[in-house]
Amino acid sequence: MLKKEPVPYKRLDSLDALRGFSMFWITGGAALVVALNEFIGDNRLEGLVEQMRHAPWEGFRFFDLIFPLFMFITGVTIPITVKLKLAKGEDKWPLFLKSFKRMLILIILGLFYNGVFRDGFTNTRYASVLGQIGIACFLSSLVVIYSRSFKTIIIWTIIILTGVATLQLFIRLPGVGAGVLTPEGCINGFIDRLFLPGKLAYGIEGKRVTHGGIFDALGWLCIISATGITLMGAIAGYILLSKNMAGYRQTRILVATGILLITFALLFSPYYPVIKKCWTSTYNLLAGGICFLLLAMSYLIIDIWHFRKWCLYFRVIGLNSIFAYLFVRIIPVNKVTGYFFGWVAKLSGSIDQLVISVGYILVVWSLLIFLYKKRIFIKV
Fold it and tell me: What tens digit of pLDDT does each residue of 182-237 get?
């Protein structure tokens, strides 16, 4: 799993930068915004702080984009990797096995992240972010590996989004009915309670979603739905691979696709709400559309205009994203930060939390830049 190797010459820096951008908010960026709000005072940045939290149920905030952006970028890399290996004459079966092995490793790492060694298997949440990434990417890889054409991938994406919407809107559940998109009424929870082992993450208390046990935002139907946005990334990857398009045309197509998806999401949302916790198809469309726009902008600036120096910070995170995600979970980075920056915070008075937040980011990035300079990239 640990490989020491140079970064491939034709690697798209925009993908690493976008992946790092998504991970930045998990590895200290959101906490920095909160600390800035406290430093400025009078809650002047409260609107921005609100965007650093997930929507309670319906709606969409900036923080609801972080996870799908990561999955989208992972999807972009699938056709790039697969087509390169198929062009070298590699059989499809080894690609299948490699994708399957990666899925298993991510599921195991997800259990590790959830504390299986701390809580034991009987009291563990089996659903995880890494597990969802692993399964969704495996399913997306199968579509890419065995599809005969680019159109087939588009068809599969439509089938998944339409299928999820059909289940959520039209399947009648016992004692609930059809189309009840609430924590206790959505079909996601019904499926999770029947088929998802271990502890379910979310319950309901009044009108507030709580940690309880009636559904899981990373459950089975959410995984299938998330495969849709991973395949959207694969579609973007095919656009970037096209030899019939120049860079500016690729960018225009990415932008047009993003606008189209966002338009569909907004048109359908009054009847089929945007809900991250049960991964509605409108959520996929909205998040996917924004991801297309962010990829277009990143690709234009970094890989076409070659303005690369500014994005080194994000690229360093993006090249070791899974490691960074696990590192901030397992290692008590707050204690490490306090050890090195605590004295500065004490001397800083009212900006002590801001100093600690900046120190936290520096601690994480210092390790990642060390790995980057040593050309150590921890991959799954």
Answer: 888 899 999 998 888 888 877 655 445 555 678 889 999 999 999 999 999 999 99
Show the CA angle centred on residue 102, arms to residues 101 and 105, nearest 5°: 90
Q: Which secondary structure element, helix H or strand E, spans residue 268, and what is its range?
A: helix 247-268
Half-sphere exposure of 374 (CA within 13 A, CB side): 13
Cβ atoms of 173 and 186 within 8 Å: the answer is no
Rounded Cα distance, 217 and 192, in Å? 10
How many residues are there in the chain? Answer: 380
Structural domain count of the chain: 1
Q: How far apart are CA 195 and CA 189, in angstroms?
A: 10
State the residue range of the domain holding 142. Answer: 2-378
Nearest residue to 282 (alpha-carbon basis) of 140, 161, 129, 156: 161
Cα separation, 280 vs 81, in Å, equals 29
How far, in Å, CA of 178 to CA of 58, rounded? 18
Partners of 205 in the β-ladder: 208
pLDDT digits (tens, 9 = 90+) for 127-168: 899 999 999 999 999 999 998 788 999 999 999 999 999 999
Across the chain, the runs of DSSP E, i.e. the strands, are 2-4, 202-205, 208-211, 376-378
d(CA 116, CA 198): 11
Give residues with Cβ within 8 angstroms of 154, minimum separation 6: 235
Q: Helix (H, G, I), strand (E, B), or coil: what is residue 58?
A: strand
The predicted-structure confidence for 243-266, as pLDDT tens digits, reads as follows 777 778 999 999 999 999 999 999
DSSP string, 92-146: HHHHHHHHHHHHHHHHHHHHHHTTHHHH-GGG-B---HHHHHHHHHHHHHHHHHH
- Name the token pair of 293: 């726009």
